Amino acid sequence: MKSAYIKQTGPPENILYGDLPKPRPVDGQVLVKVEAVDVNPIDTYVRGGMVAMHLPIPYIIGCDLAGVVEEVGPKAKTYRPGDRVWGSNQGLLGRQGTFAQYAAVDEQWLYRTPQGVSSETAVALALVGITAHLGLVHDAKLTAGETIFVNGGSGGVGSAVVQMSKAIGARVATTAGSPKKVDLCRELGADLAINYKTEDVDARIKEFAPQGVNVWWETLREPNFDRAVNLLAPRGRMIIMAGREARPPFPVGPFYVKGCSLHGFAMFNATPAEQRSAAEDINRWHAAGKLKANIDRVLPLSEAAAAHRLQEENTIGKSGTLSGKIVLKP
Length: 330
What we know:
Layout: E1 2-6, E2 16-19, E3 29-38, H1 41-48, E4 59-60, E5 65-72, E6 84-87, E7 102-106, E8 110-112, H2 119-124, H3 127-139, E9 147-151, H4 156-168, E10 171-176, H5 179-187, E11 192-195, H6 201-208, E12 213-218, H7 225-231, E13 232-240, H8 252-257, E14 261-264, H9 272-287, E15 295-300, H10 304-315, E16 325-329
Parallel strand pairs: 9-10, 9-12, 10-11, 12-13, 13-14, 15-16
Antiparallel strand pairs: 1-2, 1-4, 3-5, 3-7, 3-16, 5-6, 6-8
């Protein structure tokens, strides 16, 4: 089967595209004929060796997939051939990835694709959707009527946070770096979308939420905690999910006096039950038309190295050339 894989960690140029043996499902696995995959920042960190993990060699890259069940293992109970599924959390902690024509996946990491939802849409909201749900529901416990600020609402995770916050019933303010991206944030449901390059963001947030925001979702790798704590409401919650090497100053006094809380998490540390709870809400919102995939471009799987290079330039190099997910098709 055609696959995108590496034989050793390193730059995007280490990604090879060629034939590897087609896997067979064992125990509770199912064999998925992959129809779409996508690129996440964590994929580039694992491929580059920035996140130390045990990798089977050759290692097929990628966390997310969507496709059709072709075969089931002897202990598989949930799915049958022909079922449309999506999933995430592959390519991590010793598991093979998804950038191939077929993937053998444990049933616990797969979810049914709702009727009318394409594989491209399902995969583009896989890891970022579960990440957004874990932060909003499990950690921040966002409720209807509260106010949330998303620092960067046009990217993969940010756009999912904006949409899910609206599905929950919250008031949403967010930022983006161009008129086109500001318009996208409004299309996704943001009540206030601010161009951080041309507007006074803090002043606009204070106008929108005079008493402070209840939840601050930080997508940047270098958070400005002084700024965030100043704009949080009493008992406000801040979510961080990026910046492994970041060591910014932290305003301990204002933070604890206001009774704020800070929540940091990595999606791949969540249990299968926690991720399934997130997936169930994602599917429900999908079916109700409350979620839209934010896809920047669709490429063939053979361009996996170029896709990784582009993602890395945006995540680490902050080039700003992406506005959403890169989806690839085998």
